[in-house]
Amino acid sequence: MLATDRVTGTQVQLMMTCLCDTFFDSVAQATVEVLEHVGCTVEVPEAQTCCGQPAFNSGDWDSTRKVARHTCRTFDSSKPTILPSGSCSHMISHGYDLAFEKEDDLSTAQTFAKSSWELCDFLVNGLGIESWPGRFDAKISLHRSCHTRGTQTYQSAVKLLSSIEGVELIEFDESEQCCGFGGTFSVAYPNTSVSMGKLKIEKLTADKPDIVGAVDMACMMHLSGIANKQGRQFNKLHVSEILMKALRNAK
Amino acid sequence: MKTKQPIDAFARDLPPEIRESVYVGSKAKYDKRLDSLTQSFAAPDDIRKLAGQIKQHTLENLPEYLGSAIEKLEGNGAKVHYAKTGDDANQIILDIMRSVNATKLIKSKSMVSEEIHLNKFLEKNGCESIESDLGEFIVQLDDDMPSHIVTPIVHKNRKQIANTFEKAGLGDYNDDPQTITRRARSFLRNKYIEAEVGLTGGNFVSAETGRIALVTNEGNARFCISANKTHIALIGIEKVVPRDKDLAVLLNLLARSATGQQLTVYTQFINGPKSEAQPDGPENMHVIFLDNERSNILGSEFKEILRCIRCGACLNVCPIYRQSSGHAYRAVYPGPVGAVLSPLLAGKRYPEYADLPKASSLCGACNEVCPVDIPLPELLLRHRNKAKREGIKKASAGTPSMAGWSVLCSTPAMWKTSLRAGKAMDYISLNLIPVPAVQAWAKERSLPPFRGGKFRKWFKDRQKNK
Q: Where does the 4Fe-4S ferredoxin-type domain start and stop, copy by copy (chain B) (predicted)?
């Protein structure tokens, strides 16, 4: 999507995503603090639930549209909607096109899509922020999170993180490979999904990073869930949390 | 772990040494591909997109281009046949063989011939059909199936191959790759000379000139059409490209995407049978264009899959293929391209293969490496939706139903209630919750502590205190 087609501005809405609503409140909090730091006023519409991706990836597009229509109604398309997730924002910007392909309200879904942004993409391409202040002393391996392919999310996250004083982004092998979550794939293909996750953990942690970072908590939930069961936890942070910690360290 | 999906079960039960062979081979090809593309081109992604447009344009105008290719081929002296089905193609090949009193055929690598199970058909009809590509030859000796479209025996190691050769009477046990290759070579030399008919595939056919482009690394396609008088080229109708110069784009991408080579060792352009202008080659040339469901695919929501140039890059990068191997897909075309194509080629037997599109985390790596930019994840999603609409159970086995969930997610009051109720999860062992999806998650994964609604409360309090 061209930057010029997209809705930007500093009056923003947060779509926290269902995973941050249920498990990862710290990520949603960090997102609010990061957005406020760059001068945004953040609203959190009460009626929000989920983007509809679980049903979409399962092939149930009637259910997808039911949830997507609710989401389109809940958010105001004249203001940017920010998501701390590459996957959910990809769902809205690409998945809705497919799910509404033959529907009368395709344009409503597309209008909302033009106002939706993943956090890092918004900071860099929506607001034009090139570097991030503060300090964070850590070696970080940043998982790419597959649904950011073809979007500006990963490059934006790398741009911001690498500009933070003290941050060292480390390269690791097979960075193009998926963690194995894949929504309902993780339960329909439990063996393959877990094997992929174990391999991913091995690669992400090979160089002993201080932090494993991600732009998506879904990948993180899967990876840390496996690591936890194996009794070999690693420190994990969402990119918003790293940005927030850097700010706090500056104060 | 228990699973209802056949490919997941296959991956679970796959012998570790096969998984290792597939993993090592895939990774090597992936790495070489990236190197060879970035070394040669400043913007490989742009070339990939251009190639996609060339192929898509051809598909949008296929009747015209196919018509022109046929006209040119006939003008060049080839006899052109159209086969609606695989059975038709087999019969045409048998009829050609009978017309020249032939019982021996030698063939170079052709996925289309695998698709129509040509070898078995010819054997049943009293003809010999010998594979001359080394990998395919080994597959044939073993009565096995190729597990990869470019490297058919990526699932085998040299010890297994040495055993195969010993059993086939090709010398004593010897697992030295050079020895194996030399033995295959001396066996096949005689077969090339004995064969009355040579069969090849065709990687591209130019509509402009009728020129067939054929790539191999072993030079076996040239041998197949050197010593005999009849050449049959068996080609899918989607292999047509508009102009000779389009081959510059496509050939530059094909070998790089497949094996990381700049070009295959042999690239042949076949312009027709022996003639005054072309003193070498077989006297008779037959070109069989195979449809086998392709016209139906062309008119469907899956038409982009016909852009495929069979490089195998999507297999090599696919994490599910790497875990499960090609045989998991139960079809001639494995991996992401196979998961899209195989159910469609199955025609009325679509439901039997409707689980294949579920073999993906939709990570999109396949699209990223595809030399013709096929939107594979989108096509996999379309299959899942089709299976759901048609009520095919095999596709959704193991996937929780989304009907109730969608009501929950479109009713904010219910959603908020569940944010409170979810807390119960922290106090119950997940392994005891009798929901298959929860069991599948929890066997080897924990869930983080439930913190439903915590952020909402934090945000409200913060707004109040501002």
A: 299-319
pLDDT tens readout for residues A129-153: 999 999 999 999 999 999 888 899 9
What's the confidence (pLDDT) of residue B426? 79
Q: Which of B396, B429, B454 is the last residue of a domain?
A: B396
Residue B455 and residue B348 in one domain: no
- Model pLDDT, residue A236: 97
Query: pLDDT tens for residues B285-314?
Result: 999 999 999 999 999 999 999 999 999 999
Is any Cβ of chain A less than 8 angstroms from the Cβ of B387? yes
Q: Is the pLDDT of residue B246 over 80?
A: yes
pLDDT of residue A45: 98
User: What confidence tens digit (pLDDT) does each residue in A33-82 have?
Assistant: 999 999 999 999 999 999 999 999 999 999 999 999 999 999 999 999 99
pLDDT for A2: 52
- β-partners of residue B241 are B206
Q: Which two tokens stand for residue A166?
A: 């003290």
Contacting B residues, span 419-448, partner chain A, CB-CB under 8 Å: 419, 422, 436-437, 440-441, 443-448
**Chain-centre distance of CA B158, in angstroms?**
24
pLDDT for the residue B413: 95
Q: Based on the domain organization, do B459 and B435 belong to the same domain?
A: yes
Distance CA(B253)–CA(B170), nearest Å, equals 37
Taking the CA of residue B443 and the nearest CA in chain A, the distance in Å comes to 9
Q: Which of B359, B444, B450 sits opposite A226 (nearest CB)?
A: B444
- For residue B406, give the nearest of A25, A66, A195 by CB distance: A66
Check if B306 contacts A (Cβ < 8 Å): no
Question: For the residues of A111-143, what is the DSSP string, one character each?
Answer: HHHHHEEEHHHIIIIIS------SEEEEEEEEE
State the pairing for strand pair A211-214/A135-143.
parallel
From residue B330, alpha-carbon distances to A245, B24, B349, B457 in Å are 50, 22, 13, 51
Residues 6+ apart with CB under 8 A from A246: A132, A133, A134, A135, A136, A164, A165, A166, A167
Q: What total number of domains does chain B contain?
A: 3
Could you tell me how many CB contacts below 8 A there are between chain A and chain B? 221
- Indicate the pairing of strand B266-270 with strand A135-143: unpaired
Cβ of A20 within 8 Å of Cβ of B455? The answer is yes
pLDDT of residue B265: 96
Does A185 sit within 8 Å of B358, measured CB to CB?
yes
Q: How far apart are CA B126 and CA A204, in angstroms?
A: 57
Q: Is residue B210 pLDDT above 60, yes or no? A: yes
Which of A53, A176, A191, A196 is the best substitution to test chain B (most B C-beta atoms within 10 A)? A191
- Among A47, A58, A150, the residue with its CB nearest the CB of B399 is A58
A23 touches chain B (CB under 8 A): yes
Residue of B nearest to A48 (CA): B412
Examine the domain organization and report whether B153 and B283 are in the same domain.
yes
Q: Is residue B183 part of a domain?
A: yes
The residue segments making up the domain with residue B449 are: 409-465
Are B250 and B330 in the same domain? no
Dihedral angle computed from the Cα positions of residues B137, B138, B140 and B146, in that order, rounded to the nearest 10 degrees: -100
Q: Are A224 and B448 a contacting pair at CB < 8 A? A: yes
What's the CA gap between B353 and B392, in Å, rounded?
Answer: 10
